[in-house]
TrEMBL record:
Similarity field: Belongs to the arsA ATPase family.
Boundaries of every ArsA/GET3 Anion-transporting ATPase-like domain copy: 4-307
Record-given protein name: ArsA family ATPase
GO MF: ATP binding; ATP hydrolysis activity
InterPro entries assigned: ArsA/GET3_ATPase-like, ATPase_ArsA/GET3, P-loop_NTPase
Amino acid sequence: MDPFVFFGGKGGVGKTTVSCAYALRCARDGQRTLVVSTDPAHSVTDVFDQPFDDSPRSVDGIGGLDAVEIDPEDEVTRHLDEIRQDLSEQVSASMVNEINRQLEMAHGTPGAYESALFDRFIDVMRNADSYDRVVFDTSPTGSTLRLLGLPDLLEGWIDRLIHKRRTSIDLFEKAAVGNAEPRRVMEGDPVLARLQDRKEFFEFAGSALHDDAAFFLVLTPDELSVNETERAIVALREENLAVRGLVANKLTPSPDPDETGRGGRYLRERVETEAARLETIRSEFDPPLVAEIGWRSAEITGDLLADVADELDIETAAEQPTHV
Ligand SMILES: Nc1ncnc2c1ncn2[C@@H]1O[C@H](COP(=O)(O)OP(=O)(O)OP(=O)(O)O)[C@@H](O)[C@H]1O
Ligand SMILES: [Mg+2]
């Protein structure tokens, strides 16, 4: 299995539960594992009944497992602050107010959230040397993946910006001929350094996600979730990312044969409908069903998490990363 594993899916289907269960299983199999959550509802904290924050902390009682909880709202603020910082060093004081105004507006724009999270995911991947496996609770959405679909375009765009910046610095340096000391500013130019940095960032993101990441989708056996899963498989495929497997969660338990009352009939009907949906998935969807997890009567924490971990037919042995 690739070093980076993502679990995506619709709201509430069990992404956090399955990510934590898989991470637990990897850690049990001797992989140094980090589980990364971006859930504003702090679910990793709930699952392990222990507070987590922005920096990795070890999960009590489970050797080799760390967890980190990234707050998307903080991430957007940090991301925009970095841009603000970067820009204010480059421009005249009179521009700074205008930049601040633009950035305030950017805070609420669609995509700011996802783009900040995408950056943070990639950042975690770049700094994951001390782990064999990093499990992400939530795969990048269609719109963040589109960033990946544009590597050539982005690279071409950044290359052109780099070229422009070089040309203008070159002119600036030449304009100084005649002075005693020629101006040398190409080296150490902060704008060039920043552009170069972004270029490398996207190159890394592309190769890490294509060569070293596996994507799984979690679904519940209802029509909305199944349709959404189908769309997600297509969206990922469009970015040349194959979904490795599907995890069906919250399956209705079968009643005992002697339960012939209303409750029994209700469960039996549901079980049948769900079985038909799962059959459709098996026969029509490319990625295999790698787990069928029953609906428990309680929240999945503690021992229940270990049970769910046993039900995942997803291998844990870590492959060497190729992106390094
Ligand atoms: N198989 C299951 N049986 C019973 N409860 C479950 C099962 N799987 C998940 N749950 C419960 O359902 C709720 C939602 O699960 P979870 O938080 O894992 O979903 P999610 O996809 O991460 O949700 P969100 O989109 O809000 O982040 C939780 O309370 C969890 O304990
Ligand atoms: Mg969640």
